[in-house]
UniProtKB/TrEMBL annotation, chain A:
One of its GO terms (molecular function) is lyase activity. The lineage of its organism: Bacteria, Pseudomonadati, Pseudomonadota, Alphaproteobacteria, Hyphomicrobiales. This is Heme lyase CcmF/NrfE family subunit. Required for the biogenesis of c-type cytochromes. Possible subunit of a heme lyase. It comes from the Bacteria. InterPro entries: CcmF_C, Cyt_c_assembly, Cyt_c_biogenesis, Cyt_c_biogenesis_CcmF.
Automatic annotation (TrEMBL), chain B:
Heme binds at residues 122, 126. This is Cytochrome c-type biogenesis protein CcmE. GO terms for biological process: cytochrome complex assembly; protein-heme linkage. Residues 1-7 are cytoplasmic. One of its GO terms (molecular function) is heme binding. Residues 138-149 have a biased composition (Basic and acidic residues). The lineage of its organism: Bacteria, Pseudomonadati, Pseudomonadota, Alphaproteobacteria, Hyphomicrobiales.
Length: 660, 165
């Protein structure tokens, strides 16, 4: 009954989406306010029905109703409640339902909070949003219905993939989808602007918060996914340049570019056409990401074999929306008026440079991800493009970008003073050079690139600080005045500081981890001691334990540093009987922002356990960086100018009403 | 500067960056891509010693031997040819005899494939795509691999091992 209700709610949501995708457009053509307002209620109702449908699927999973195929294939009655809930999106059908639910959520948010939007713009935005939604409802209902029943219900389910039975599944996919799908809003705004043929600075002011919100979620989602892979896969890697990861990195790069170009549009009314194109491209890359992950088309360590009808269906959605929006762009973009002029050396120029490098870097990731696929289709050769490719392409493109980051905020709009900016950055440059020299001396001429890269990161962080220090006049004014000016500084300036510094922080973590991580693999017996990076790790013993749906071999290591005990680590190996698989639960011990990492291999005939121990210096900075970026985004989102909203065009003075 | 000159300058700058990027991509594509081969292709194409490639197939049942210091040796087969593989390190959790595997490395002069990475998948019915394709082509496709594997999540679900450094 619940399954049928969920299915029915989804069909109703499709019907509402179809109404929402047509009636408001008609209303806009006829200039009929009533028809245009249909968009608002339809979007809210559509969200309500998807929520009911999604809730039904959660309920079916929680109650372990194995007469539903999807629940049978991915759940087990002994599975802990948390994983029963998160398991809803740990499979294809459920994750697509989560995808449309979030799409409908964003549509609902625009409907609920878009009261200050011009009526026709809101109608167009919600209609475009509903086109996307309709396509995905059809996809789910036709090819991946999560509510299918089994004729003879089995007693027990097949359980969720053990790797996914982790708190990471509760956080990573929803965050990632909030980011991916959040870009649909800027896409809809772009398409609406093209349809209306009208685009002004106010448009950018409406789009920016939505883009920023999606970007914050995507940043957190990618970082969370990376940390999850790091601790769950058991060999300490945190980024694999895997197609599925690239699929989320590409929209992030394009979205970062979009954030910055929307800034130019908002402040200076320039780069309009480019911003629209970026908005379209960003969401197109999100769709591409969905396609890559959901169709199983790529050979990938994440490879996900599904039946081809799904792949073809998503490919069609992809072609229609990307092709359609680009065609619309080609047709209507020339109608948009050009905006303000600026000199090449200016804030605008710096942001153009940022966009240039980010989109080029995005393009190289795109090539690296899709080239193997194209080659296989054309020649039949199978190749894999891995980390070396991206290190040789993505890496060099990031260097000039990062060098330029501190200059951007210091340049004035319209016409900037590069020499002046450089003078103000001298302090940051000196700090960076000192750090390079220190690191170089400390490591005694080991890796050459690493100290330089750390210097670059320090330059980015110090440069971000210089901007704020300059703006509040920290050393020129007495402290109370500087403090008052700091309070008066717009939150977006603080946002810039945190976001840019976050990039530098992440870079330090990445460089230190990849250059100086150390690894020790040994077969250890009870009482054995291993030494790594100044720590002694003593293997105290192992014991068998019974978990809710697995058996676990838990080992105990006591860690000491120079004879002083500092902690205990308990890595384990779990075997899940239902799926006949085992997972390695690594143990982590943080020392400041560095970590010790132990994961277990197999147990040999003599009873010795193969143990892999890593010391990862400053590894946590890799994820603290994105957290800082997201925090910066949040600060920027709370900026007064976005809270107050876009200025309304002055209402025409109402003529005096004749007395009745 | 006129508007036109400014625009030309911007387009010129963008062009330079794009050319550099294309150069980087082409250079990287020449040097750092890795081809995939099955054991049969290894013999047919006479891949030289030292050339990196990915070897995919089924771990031949009964061929797994463990040596000292985490060294392992096994054979990868695709039904018509077999290549011996040597690897040092921890094998992935799901490495099993009789199941699909992908190893990355190069042949040594004795014809042994020295792997530095071994990939297996967290799923008992999983078969690497290339292996499945190759086996299908050669008519060695077994029915039990055709069962639809249960879905993995959107995130990392693979398992891999790296070498002892």
């Amino acid at each position: 009954m619940i399954a049928e209700a969920g299915h029915y709610a989804l069909v109703l949501a499709l019907a509402l989406a179809l109404i929402q995708s047509t009636v408001p457009i008609l209303g806009a053509r006829l200039n009929d306010g009533g028809l245009m307002n249909v968009a608002r209620s339809a979007a809210l109702a559509q969200f309500a029905f998807v929520a009911v449908s999604f809730g039904a699927l959660i309920w079916l999973n929680v109650t372990s109703d194995f007469s539903v195929l999807n629940v049978y294939e991915n759940s087990h009655s002994a599975k802990p409640l948390l994983y029963k809930i998160t398991g809803v999106w740990g499979n294809h059908e459920g994750s697509m339902l989560l995808w449309v639910s979030i799409l409908a959520l964003f549509g609902g948010l625009v409907a609920a909070f878009g009261n200050n939007l011009p009526l026709s713009l809101r109608a167009h935005v919600l209609a475009v949003q509903a086109w996307v939604a309709s396509a995905f409802y059809l996809f789910i209902l036709i090819t991946s219905n999560p509510f299918l029943r089994i004729a003879n219900p089995p007693i027990e389910g097949r359980d969720l993939n053990p790797v996914l039975q982790d708190i990471g599944l509760a956080v990573h996919p929803p965050l990632l989808y909030l980011g991916y799908v959040g870009f649909s809003i800027s896409f809809s705004f772009a398409a609406a602007a093209l349809l209306e043929g009208r685009l002004d600075a106010a448009w950018a002011r409406w789009v920016r918060p939505w883009t920023l919100m999606a970007w914050i979620f995507l940043t957190l989602g990618i970082a969370m996914g990376s940390y999850w892979a790091y601790y769950e896969l058991g060999w300490g890697g945190w980024w694999f340049w895997d197609p599925v990861e690239n699929a989320s990195l590409m929209p992030w790069l394009a979205g970062t570019a979009l954030l910055h170009s929307a800034l130019v549009m908002e402040k200076r009314n320039a780069l309009k056409v480019w911003t629209i194109l970026l908005a379209i491209l960003t969401f197109s890359l999100s769709l591409l990401g969905t396609f890559l992950v959901r169709s199983g088309v790529l050979t990938s360590v994440h490879a996900f074999a599904t039946d081809p009808t799904r792949g073809v269906f998503i490919l069609m959605i992809l072609c229609v929306f990307i092709g359609g929006s680009l065609a619309l762009f080609a047709w209507r973009a020339s109608a948009l008026k050009q905006g303000g002029l600026f000199a090449p050396i200016s804030r605008e120029g710096a942001l153009v440079l940022n966009n240039l490098f980010l989109t080029t870097a995005c393009a190289t990731v795109f090539v690296g991800t899709l080239y193997p696929l194209a080659l296989e289709v054309v020649t039949g050769d199978k190749i894999s493009v891995g980390a070396p490719f991206f290190n040789l392409t993505f890496g060099p493109l990031m260097v000039p970008l990062l060098l330029a980051v501190p200059f951007g905020p210091l340049l004035a709009w319209k016409r900037g003073d590069l020499l002046g900016a450089a003078q103000r950055l001298i302090a940051a440059g000196i700090v960076a050079l000192l750090v390079i020299a220190l690191v170089f001396a400390w490591t005694k001429g080991g890796a050459v690139l690493a100290p330089l890269a750390i210097g670059l990161a320090v330059f980015v962080i110090a440069g971000a600080l210089v901007d704020v220090v300059e703006r509040i006049g920290l050393f020129r004014n007495p402290l109370p005045i500087a403090a008052r000016r700091a309070r008066g500084l717009p939150r977006s300036a603080w946002g810039t500081l945190f976001a840019h510094a976050g990039v530098g922080v992440a870079l330090i973590g990445i460089v230190c981890e990849t250059t100086w991580n150390s690894e020790h693999i040994a077969a250890m017996k009870e009482g054995d001691t291993a030494r790594l990076a100044g720590y002694e790790l003593r293997f105290d013993g192992a014991m068998q334990r019974q978990g809710p749906n697995y058996r676990e071999l838990q080992t105990r290591f006591s860690i000491s540093e120079g004879g002083r005990p500092i902690g205990v680590m308990t890595p384990s190996k779990r075997s899940f009987t239902t799926r006949n698989t085992s997972t390695t639960e690594a143990a982590l011990l943080s020392r400041g922002v560095s970590q010790l990492y132990i994961s277990l291999g197999e147990i040999d005939a003599t009873g010795a356990v193969t143990v892999r121990i890593y010391h990862k210096p400053l590894v946590l900075l890799i994820w603290i960086g994105p957290l800082l970026m997201a925090f910066g985004g949040l600060l920027s989102l709370s900026d007064r100018r976005l809270r107050v909203g876009a200025p309304k065009p002055a209402k025409p003075q109402r003529a005096l009403q004749p007395a009745e | 500067m006129t508007r036109k000159q400014r625009r030309l300058m911007m387009i010129g700058g963008a062009g330079v960056v794009l050319v550099v990027a294309v150069g980087l991509v082409l250079n990287a594509l020449r040097g750092s891509i890795v081809f995939f081969s099955t054991p049969k292709m290894v013999f047919e194409q006479h891949i030289g010693a030292g050339t990196r490639f990915r070897l995919g197939g089924v771990v031949e049942p009964g061929s797994l031997q463990r040596g000292d210091q985490l060294a392992v040796a096994f054979k990868v087969s695709d039904g018509s040819a077999t290549v011996p593989v040597a690897f040092k390190g921890i094998l992935p959790d799901l490495f099993r005899e009789g199941q699909g595997v992908i190893a990355e490395g190069a042949l040594d002069s004795a014809g042994v494939f020295k792997a530095d990475t071994v990939l297996a998948k967290h799923d008992e019915t999983y078969m690497p795509k290339e292996v499945a394709d190759a086996l299908k082509k050669q008519g060695h496709w077994k029915d039990d691999y055709e069962k639809k594997p249960p879905g993995a999540g959107p995130a990392a679900s693979a398992d891999a091992t790296r070498p002892v450094r």
